[in-house]
Amino acid sequence: MRELYEKLKTRFPLGEFTDQRDNLGFITVDKDQLRPVLYHLRDHEGFSHLVLLTAVDWIEEDRFQLTYLLSNRTRSVDVGLRVMLDRGEPVMETIHDIWPTAATYQCELREMFGIDFPDSPGVMDDFILEGWDDLPPYRRDFDTKKYSDETYAHREGRVTHDPAEYMKKQLYPDEV
Amino acid sequence: MKEELQKRTVKGPDGFEFEVDPLNDYYCSEAPKAHPPAYAKIVESFFNWARSESIWILGFGTGCGAIEMRPLMTPRFDAYRFGVQWRPTPRQANLFIISGYLSVKTLKRAIRSYEQMQNPKYVLGLGSCTINGGMYWDSYNTIKKLDDYMPVDLFVAGCMPRPEALLASFEELKKVIKAGKAEGANAYAENFDWYKANQKKVIKDWDMPDYNW
Amino acid sequence: MTFEWIQIPYSLMTLLIVIIYAFFMTALIAKIGARAGRRYGIRIHQNFLDLFKNYSLRSSITHGYMFYLAPVFRLTGGIGLLLFVPTIYGSQMFSNLSFAGDLILALYFIFFGTLGMALGAAESGHPYAAIGISRGLSQVTMAELPFALSVFAIAVQYQTLSVTDIVAAQQGGFMNWTVFTNPLAVTAAMMSFLGTMMRSPFDLHLAPQEIPIGPPTEYHSSYLALMQTNRNLFPVAKVVIYMNLFFGGATNWPVFFLKVFLIYLFSAFVGVVFPRFRVEQSIRWFMVWAVPVGIAAILLV
Amino acid sequence: MLYQPDRSQYPDMGPDGKLDIDLSSGKYLKLWQGPQHPGITGNMSLELTVCGDEVVEGKVHVGYLHRGFEKLMERRSFIQCFPIVCRICVPEPDFNEYCYAAAVEELAGIEISERAKWIRTLILEMGRINSYMMYLGGQAGALGMGVIGQWTTYVRDLMLDRFEELTGARIYHMFIIPGGVRDDLPAGFEDRMEETLKEIEATLKDVQEVMFQNAVFKKRTKGIGYIDPSLVDSYGITGPNARAAGIAKDVRADQPYLVYPHLDFEPVTGKDSDIFTRSDVRRRDVIMSVDLVRQILSRMPKKDGPLMAKLPNVLHWKIPRGETYIRGECSRGEYGFYVVTDGSGYPRRVNVRGPSYTHAMSLLQRMIVNVNIADVASLMVSLHTYPPEIER
Amino acid sequence: MMLDVLSPFRAWKNLFRDPVTVIDPLNDRPGAARYRGFHQNDVDLCIGCGTCEAICQNAAIDMVPVKQLEAPGKDSGLRPKIDYGRCCWCALCVDVCMTGSLTMSNEYKWVESDPEKFRFIPGVDKKYWDDAELGYHRPEDYHLTPHTRAEMGEMEADERISNFDEIVYGYTREQAIIEADRCVSCGLCVATCPAHMSIPDYIAAIRDGDYEGGLKLLYETNPFSQVCGRVCTHRCETVCSAQHEGDPIAIRWLKRHITDNVPAEKYAEIIGGKEPDTGKKIAIIGAGPAGLTTAFDLAKMGHKVVVHEANSGPGGMARYGIPEYRMPYDVLDHEVSVIESLGVEIKYNTRIGKDIAMEELQKDYDAVLLSIGLHLGRSTRIIGTDNPAVAKAVDLLRDITNGKKVKVPETVVVIGGGNVAMDIARSVARLQKQTYGEVKLTVTALEDFDHFLADPEEVKESFEEGINILDARGPQEIVIDDKGKVTGLRTWKVKSIFDEDGRFNPSYDETDEIIHEGTLVIEAIGQMSDVSLLGEDLTEKLEWSRGRIVVDPDGRTNQEWLWAAGDCVHGPDIIHAVADGHRVAKSIDKHIGKAKAKSKK
Question: How far apart are CA E241 and CA D256, in angstroms?
């Protein structure tokens, strides 16, 4: 994997490299370098299969990480491209013209993370959710338990006790 | 609201223009009515017997429990022996098996399907997720208590319940029907406002009539 | 044959017997089909339970007058078909309202229910019902063609349009049955028979996986109960015609039951093991296989 | 030919590249298939615009089964995620368990025991047989031949019995746990498995005779639903769908995981890339899986030592920051888990890559155009998609 | 082509085969032997630790009190109640169950019309599957929590026997992490610990490597953490949920590990400062754990504390009752220096009643605390105990601590089976080894090994060190020769210790008699307080019970200015003394606060 990284590095400015396994590595790529790198990987390195496109919310660092995972099916190696986006203004260029399936991924990311991909077909359509009016649910600051408690009613009448506290009360009933 | 549900002017094939308000024109606005049982007790008992021995299930796999429906339709368990059949349309079905969790999106369809079924109709809540949210208790997209949204006759514990548990629930349902206690459809009509309020609380984009017959 | 009032209660009795028989027999066929799937299948009296259940539903919504009428039309088709052909040959009691030209009427009645259904299904407003009925009509039309040809062939063969006379001509040993005297016509007719029995590969108007379940999608409760009755009765009535025309009719009830059962079984026998055609494939099939046989039958007579 | 939709007659293309479909013109009809529709696999729906019998535009709607697993996992500890991942795919849940466990093991640096690997492989192959059995029944059922589904569901049920005695559950096995597997094979398992395999083989023979040597079935499936091999890469097509197009890609052979390096097999491929070929590839794949199960049972090493690797206390298990992607070849194609950890006791992000994601969304939407309504269900089934893994 | 038409008809061969349907699926198909069906719980085995609740990702389990369980102290008194509206039958609760009490049956049918009914307490609420034998039980070799204790390095017996160096080395970082990782944070230990130390929290601090945070937690509840980290009676470990299927967590050693890993000079800073001066003065009699804990607390509250100690060093029983190889004095000194750094004044060699009168204290201080420990040994009062060659363990231990040259003869007999007996025996053994090069020492204990009072590891180590321990021996007479010299101890075999009413009344098998050789007999059967300092008046005014001062739950005597705490009230136990100290400190603060309020009025 490192060879590939070194080779790419001579052509493109690249960020951090993580050698995860013999056949899997992750490379951080600049937002505007992504497209040339993708073209290069697809056309010259045989990474013709877009395995997945997803995002990670690093809310502490105030950014989104987009992961484009590509696979070279002949050599059976994978490379993940990490693109860091500003969390305040998450907009990314669409790649549906390179891989048509990316449109679906982008649609999902728009809905679940609120990352916009202008010009991606159907990106504004409802994909999974319907009538959603809260924060995009996959964002870290969206608290699913809180939302669930507020929106849906749970069956009442459940009480639990802390074993330590309850036992203490039994053993030392005089203590305040 | 979806575009196709908005009021609009339409030009027919014959060139005639007319106004369409889909929600009013295409749907019935009448609320459901409670239908009393037959006047004669013996007739009602006979009807209940017939109802209990001919249970037609709506073929709508709302959740994962639907996968255990197939073994029931096929040789191993062969539920047809017990008077149970699957129907592809809600009009002809009497029993709606909510096979597990209902996402909000499916809840909307489930309500429509339920309302299109004819009185008397029965609902079976399959698995823990219909009882109290199950393993999706903290999910933002699934309802927790099925009986808030439609009257439920029986719940079956399990995740997911085995086909045998389902068969046991059919047997139990037969008993309930024969005892004349499966009056979910009437309960729905009588507490219509309450159910509607609950439904509308979770379905944010309510773009259908209040009652689908 | 002249009309006598006593024929009315007699025919009603026939009707009753046939309906009850039809209900049991359909269940039996279903059980046999289930055996191919290595299971037991429905209970033998399940059809009655379903019928009572459907009558016992408390609410039933309607989509308009035609929606009401369609099941009635449909049932009329079934009953009419049965009533105008002789059930038991040689029996005054069970010859129904058979008359000289009844073969033509029977042909009409076979079509009648489908037409009624078309009106009702259209009224129900369900797109799948509309698709189903258009498929159904095209196929029935096509399937009727070989049957009509074959009927024409035997009408020519026996020189009569009366079912009773055709049956009479076949008496005296099974070698006299049309199936042996005019096998081509019978082949064409049996092909058409497959096409009208609502079973694979010709069940494309119901096709649950494509257009669940076509025309009757919206029907329920007592409407459905009526249609169910017809669903059981109509095929039997149709089988009665086939039996009379091609298999020597029946001179008593046991023979009747057996013949009807076997002819009916034929459709199930084929239906269970084939998937369904698409509508144009089905039509092409009739055109390519059934119609030429029918024409040949006429030519050879 | 499917792939260059024939728009010559209808509908017109608007200047913005969108189709000009005027429903009120009476020429087009909008049809919804699903979510309550017997011809739909699982709970999803197709919004079809048809002209006559031909589909001119199709849109796939999913989300009816969305439970937000990826979110729920972010607030469950690593061991707590183990019971919920299998729910992502109902008919073949074990792949979730395997991919998740393998990802966690890789990130936490846990090496699992040899026998556990064999048992995992066994379970995955058993699950594959089950999934294909459901598929075969579904493919025949979509064309109205219910009898095949009766047989295959029956043998699937026998396999579920084997699952039950091995794992303790029928559908959601929850057996492949991070660190190994829960338990060893029960006594006499091999013999009962052999009986089940024999029954499966007999059924497959019947299926071959009744379903594949069937004039009507051939008529309905040959030449229909053609996928051009050139689309395989751009549409992310994997598994039998790709193999039926002649592209011999099988993760089991390409990136062997678990004990696949020790097993003998050859990826099954087909040529015609139509519905028939895809069904046939799957049928032959079951035969291969049956053989693999036999190989596994006969070559599995004896138990020496515990099946479970030494785990830290799972109640406060923390995994250092890292990310990885684990893939496996499930019955539908490439199944994968992308797991990101941040050093806490919870996964930072889990992304599930189900093969249906690309098959049922972009591919199906494209293939469905110009298809007869009658073939829609059959086409959809032939892609072998399971909605829950699309929306998770 | 023709084949394609005919071949499908082969399906009909099934017509002549029997269907494969299960005739009565409801009864013919029990779940598999491993089936994960409905839960069962052996309530007697269950300890209510709540680990099942902690691991359940569905929040399906509540811990609820069960009335019929009446065994406070052994478990939490709670039992899991499972909500089948949540459960997913993953059996993680069964896997993690610390006692193995929670299992699953192979039953799986439960249909109910009332959704509220799907909650039950397995094993308590009767269910039809309670007696099912098949079902999921946790397989052998399969544990989600590690169950063997991390080994701690310690000196070998022959190395340690010749000196008084500390035996155990303490955990290394790696060992500590392994051990800390085993904790399931159930908190039964917190409830049991008299001082309610936040055990799971400081164990978590070890896992995170946050020793300073851990130390802060320790000193919130226990200013004698370093001491307790070595010699605590660790009642926490007796309820530890990990002990049921493995070893209990080495809570004591982990505590010590924290204290070892924070530099001595940082203690004061971490433990934190004190509140502003209140101008109140409190006298404490005895610089033992109880007294100094009170001093620590009160000093933090801003009161002025003066501790009067009769001995020359601090620590009380912790110093004078525990040998150095278990409790090194420099650790103790450091511990006290931490307390002193808060401004506590300790006056050594000040014996109340001799150097200062009790009345004086009453007059000069706002409150007085009596924490004088148990420095007098009890006697068996058998014949011959008045001989000078019969000694009491506490006295000897004190002498050893004070550095007095204690002469031990070549053969010694110790009477007693408690920890003090072990302490003195092992101390004497070391002296013997130093003097004679070999150990000749017999310990006779009343109890048999199954009911032994001393800690098992003490017994084990004693054996390793060459000490002969005989169980179930009742002392009858000190054997004295004509010259009046002790030559041994005569014992009988004990048949039972308690009579039918449960009173202490040993019965003996007189035929089984042994004379243990020894020219010194040491009695280590219990201690009592030296209450002579109180003076006759006060002694009379105070309420007594079995030789101990009666106090209210807050540790106050019936004299409103006088509190009592520690061993002299509750018997020997450091952690109890610490807990007492806290309680008394709170009570004193409350009292003098009130007094202040009163005086303001």
Answer: 43
